[in-house]
Amino acid sequence: MDTLEPAVVWKYFAGLSAIPRRSGEETAAGNWVIRIAEDHGLNWQRDATGNIVVQVPATPGREGVAPTVLQGHLDMVCEKNADTVHDFSTDPIRLRVVGPEVKATGTTLGADNGIGVAMALAVLDAKGAAHGPLDLLFTVDEERGLTGAKGLQPGFLRGNRLINIDTEELGQIYIGCAGGIDTILTLPLVRAPMPHGAVRIRIAVKGLRGGHSGCDIHEGRGNANRILARMLRDLQLKGLLAGVAAIDGGSLRNAIPREAFAVVDIRDPAAVQAALADYRDLVAGELAGVDEGLHVGTEASQDARLPLRDDVAQRVIDLLLALPHGYIAFSRALPGLVETSTNLATLTTTDDHLTIATSQRSSIQSQLRWVADSVASLGRLAGATVQQSDGYPGWPPNPNSPLLAQAQRVFARQFGEAPVPKAIHAGLECGLIGDRFPSMDMISIGPDVRNAHSPDECVDIASVAQTWQILLALLADLT
Predict the structure, then answer these.
(1) Domain boundary at 340, 373, 388, which?
(2) Domain span holding position 98
(3) Residue 170 domain-assigned?
(4) Is the domain of 331 the same as that of 409?
């Protein structure tokens, strides 16, 4: 890492990566930011939610420039491979350089949004940088529900224009994002006696790519929860399933589930293995060219829970097969942009309940409400209770933004032409910041970050350097 350029950006990224910062556990990372601010003799504030703002004076000759906010979030998605030993509450991220990219070892990297935080802090040490007054805004708990942005209060920021450094595509300028709602279904479970002569096993679906439930939802990557439900139905239809004790899968609301597991009772292990192998090949064919790591395995299980009553197991599998997953519609206004989607995110079985967590996104509020209500209706038809979050607003694009016009001029100098502004099918904090600060003029930029929210997450080294140059040039141009 010490040889990477720009060294000042990678220094701060490595420093942040050494601090565990699971969503809701960002205090240590925030304290690290405060120490940096104090080392530079800067004023800072921390609000009741945990957000931090560092006030940076203008460089000489730029005192009359209007203040600008640079913004990123401190927390990261914490995903790891099943065979990786890592405690996200105590262990640092283990960084490694792999060719042109930086990755982590068996876990998410946290470039989302650690690289944005690092760039904002690096401005403090950038030799020859020119900029007006800056507010460096570091929010918390973005990944679980944009909690930090929701907690922002009037008066916390000086600036009326904001550069969010949390998108993941070099050379693009984003000016809009989707809103979202979480829909949680809780299905009561009734258990029955253990079937006579049955063997208990655990079926595992692994090896899928996972990824961001907004940015990657259009690719058709495998959803481990849906694949597992399909396999259980196949075993049912072939008369090979004697009982179902538990179904668990996924780990995060905003990640496409990579792994899922079922504890089941069977009587013919050889026939079950053959059926699973056949179905694995069938699904692998469907995912060819998109998600080619699918693995299906079984092992003996010591889980002592009784199996679900047959009609309850049938209802569980029916509901999982009926729930939608993936994109619902593409935007007609912005070609290629997913407009509406839903993610069948996590399954959690307890002794008496199955909890199904889903998340819906849309850049159109009426569509968001419709798809969330559709998921809720399916849950109620299956006998589940439904809980929905308050949701968060989208960020309506402003093609007449003065900040956008200035950024396009800088991008044109860097890349030879000005990019067409874009929107993203994900919940950027700009939506909530705009709701809290209605006069805020905003754009979002960032380097190439791939496979965010999965252990395959990586950031392109060269794109970090290019984004850094764009950021410095834009700050120097602002008036």
Answers:
(1) 388
(2) 7-178+394-477
(3) yes
(4) no
Domain match, 11 and 144 both = yes
Radius of gyration of the chain (CA): 24
Residue 255 CB-half CA count within 13 A: 30
pLDDT digits (tens, 9 = 90+) for 193-223: 999 999 999 999 999 999 989 989 999 999 9
pTM here is: 0.75
More confident position, 371 or 423: 371
Q: Are 107 and 239 found together in one domain? A: no
Number of structural domains the chain divides into: 2
Instruction: Report d(CA 19, CA 91) in Å as an integer.
Output: 8
Choosing from 142, 216, 259, 457, which is the catalytic residue? 142
Q: Residue 16 sits in a domain of what CATH number?
A: 3.40.630.10
Concerning whether 5 is annotated as a catalytic residue, the answer is no
In the chain the first and final C-alpha atoms are separated, in Å, by: 35
In three-state secondary structure terms, 61 is: coil
- In angstroms, the CA 110 to CA 449 distance is 10
Both tokens assigned to 298: 């079984």
pLDDT greater than 80 at residue 334:
no
Active-site residue, 142 included: yes
Among 75, 216, 448, 457, the active-site one is 75
Question: 63-86 pLDDT, tens per residue?
Answer: 999 999 999 999 999 999 888 999
Domain membership flag for residue 1:
no
Q: What CA–CA distances, in Å, run from 402 to 163, 172, 175, 268, 469?
A: 12, 16, 12, 68, 20
Q: What is the DSSP letter of 164?
A: E
